Amino acid sequence: MRELINYRPIARVVSVLLVIIGVLMWTGVPFSAYYDEPTQPLLYAGVTTLVAAGLLWLISHRKKDGRTASVAMLSIHKREGYLIVALSWVAMTVFGMLPYLYSGMLPSVPDALFETVSGLTTTGASTLTDIEIQPRGLLYWRSLTQWIGGMGIIVLTVAILPLLGIGGIELFAAEAPGPTSDKLHPRISETAKRLWFIYVGLTVLEGFLLYFAGLSPYEAINHALTTMATGGFSTRNASAAAFSPTIQYIIILFMFLAGVNYTLLYLGIKRRWSEVWRSSELKAYVGLIVVLTAIFTARVSYHTEDTLEQCFRDSMFQIVSLITTTGFVSADYTSWANSLTMVCFVLLFLGACAGSTSGGIKLIRHLVFFKNSYLEFKRLIHPQAIVPLRLNGQIVPGRIITHIFNFLLLYLMIFVLGSVVLSILGLDFITAVGAMATSLGNVGPGIGGVGPTDNFAWLSPEIKLFLSFVMIVGRLEIFTVLILFTPYFWRLN
Amino acid sequence: MRELINYRPIARVVSVLLVIIGVLMWTGVPFSAYYDEPTQPLLYAGVTTLVAAGLLWLISHRKKDGRTASVAMLSIHKREGYLIVALSWVAMTVFGMLPYLYSGMLPSVPDALFETVSGLTTTGASTLTDIEIQPRGLLYWRSLTQWIGGMGIIVLTVAILPLLGIGGIELFAAEAPGPTSDKLHPRISETAKRLWFIYVGLTVLEGFLLYFAGLSPYEAINHALTTMATGGFSTRNASAAAFSPTIQYIIILFMFLAGVNYTLLYLGIKRRWSEVWRSSELKAYVGLIVVLTAIFTARVSYHTEDTLEQCFRDSMFQIVSLITTTGFVSADYTSWANSLTMVCFVLLFLGACAGSTSGGIKLIRHLVFFKNSYLEFKRLIHPQAIVPLRLNGQIVPGRIITHIFNFLLLYLMIFVLGSVVLSILGLDFITAVGAMATSLGNVGPGIGGVGPTDNFAWLSPEIKLFLSFVMIVGRLEIFTVLILFTPYFWRLN
Ligand SMILES: [K+]
Ligand SMILES: [K+]
């Protein structure tokens, strides 16, 4: 009889992750050295992380029942899958905040934890009040946490979550096998390799473009890392408002690409355009950006004295930034008009395509809702008829529709409950809903006291810890985290 | 071959409704006479309405295909059912606002229309800035519109909507047959008679209790009419805050009863208590009120200098008033604390039991959501197992779960879109979401500029017309109204 949960593969995966984290910390050391900053924080944080990884490896490698564990031999079932996902994020957070603590850049644990979770979840909300006076090596690490988190989330949503049956995403992960078996499929590593290639390639490409457009290599690298992760951490206090129009347009383009399903990006690279354009989600994504940009441009140019080009650029930048949940800011969208503030708030709930690094609900789920709502009227008129929902030409089973609807409702329910918690912790109405929406959707800026020109530094430690948990819940598509708190998870039947 | 829509039964039903409306207008004439006010407005409005009813009757009674129509012979199908519901509300609104217009109490059409729709939908939001200086006879008519609307809604939700398959309410309407046939069932009239008896009985009982507790007969009648409708129109500017504790407790009791499913009230009258207590929705309803009252009492007593009894009474009154969507006010809930304002805002989305006069989403739908969410985790862990959702011991079919979820999401979507529209029409964030939530949920008071101590008089005519439409959409459970705007409705296949 097998145990309920086999902890050895979990320890193994986490230990491998920590090795990656530790080594990546060291990639910041050259920046620290170049800018004449202390190199110890990143160096020692890397050492600590690698030692911990080694210890975990030893534990996971112990002989058991006379067998040594090898990755191929390890049987990873659903329960282990959930725990790997959750514990990976916990472990990355615990060790990821060491540079902030060691350096004294963020000496308090709630601040350092918030900044790290905000990085790894690609949220981009910050507790730093003045970014430009911070050590460059540490800011690079801060950007890198987002890039690591972005990579993690692609592997998670394209390769792992569909196997766990989370969020109905088997629908849009054409590359991944359906959740027919309890065992995770070995094809994960093959898919992951392909995604890795696209992710790294686009990051490098954007970095070069930003550099040629005038950014320093350091800033080009930082912003390339946080754009492709739809993270939104910047090395400037004014975020992208500090940059030239050309740079802003480059960032818009790569935010857009970062919001596309990686399966489609892969098909695009292979020039299989007809398959790319079959995607209803991509059409919705492009259409939404076009329509909203037109409306915003008209409204903003009516409101300000700026040139039409600037109105267009500011509108498109903010819309793409919010829909992709990147959270870069090139203009204060809460200063435009009541109605545009309201629309921007609603955009916090959209998210771009599933299988991208973007957070939030994702457009595919909204599509399923809109299509089914329309069909529901047909079902009312013709109660005897069978009216199936089709997406990209395929019938979506009722069970998956229910699951997606349940996700949508749970998402909104958590938003509401979290807003109540934040108001109990002292926030006013607008700041509470703004902070909750932007944290759960992994966007970054919100409305009210956490608007695009504010930061999260002024919030109480309790609020920072609470929002850190919320960011992880949002990033891991809710079910992955909450399932650990149900009795079903901890008993065999 | 039959026509797509048979308009004769629709005209017939509307004409009967208008006769009732016209005659009921005249019941306000004695009040006008008693208080030395002009009697013409109500008198002439009644005449106009009855003349219109007569004309409609003649049209519906015309011979066609050599047959005269008799109600028994008329074949009412789904399409006619939807149109009857929608057009009834339109017709009642058009004629219901005549007294306001004829008297000059609300001389502008948007104001008169808003007040009438707010009455008939049992919302209770008002455009009157000073209620106490208004003619008594007209205020009686204003209260009566709510009572008429409340009666209409019970017949609708218990007897008609289940036949149309709207909102998954066949679930909780134990008395109504399922939507198996396209033809409306003749048992409607029998069920309606029973509901009518309970509704009238409780109204009379409350009226007497309020009178014995010290209200004038006039005020006792008015508040009994608007309590049982969960309407919330008052004859006092201060609403229920103007009354003694005893009267407030009586109103709490009857608001509570008005929020109970009428099928359960019927079983209660028959003393079939075991069947009453089997209802999960009733348990949730009672439990929610008890828990929230305890929390609010503690928080309010911490915040104010009031006696514990007053804190308890104020808390319970506001909670029962909001959950049942009555909207009477005995204390300003937005003045207590950020967190309680937020919770009160959330309460605008609850609604009491289905099959009562309360508006909003209704607890049964929330129950289905909560139960299914929990089961969804079980389904994730055991993907091969069939995990059905049970309510009151019965399995809820997947199709109905999907329909209920779709209702919930559509409700929230309309709330969001409506808030955007209101912000475009000039309202600030909090007032927009407050006005939208309270109108869609047929509650009455909101937050922000339409809080419990404010009214809707200051809003622009466009906003008043828009909110009138929203109140009707909310009251008729969304699908009933929106289906008229789909192509499916207007073509045979
Ligand atoms: K972000
Ligand atoms: K009401």
UniProtKB/TrEMBL annotation, chains A, B:
Subcellular location(s) of the protein: Cell inner membrane
Domain of life of the organism encoding this protein: Bacteria
Keywords from the named record: Cell inner membrane, Cell membrane, Ion transport, Membrane, Potassium, Potassium transport, Transmembrane, Transmembrane helix, Transport
Transmembrane segments: 12-35, 41-60, 81-102, 147-174, 195-213, 247-269, 281-302, 340-361, 408-430, 465-490
Keyword Transport appears in the UniProt entry: yes
Main location: membrane
Bilayer topology term: Multi-pass membrane protein
Entry-linked PANTHER family: TRK SYSTEM POTASSIUM UPTAKE PROTEIN TRKG-RELATED
Family that this chain belongs to: Belongs to the TrkH potassium transport family.
Protein's recorded name: Trk system potassium uptake protein TrkH
Species this protein is from: Neolewinella maritima
Organism placement in taxonomy: Bacteria, Pseudomonadati, Bacteroidota, Saprospiria, Saprospirales
Gene that encodes the chain: trkH
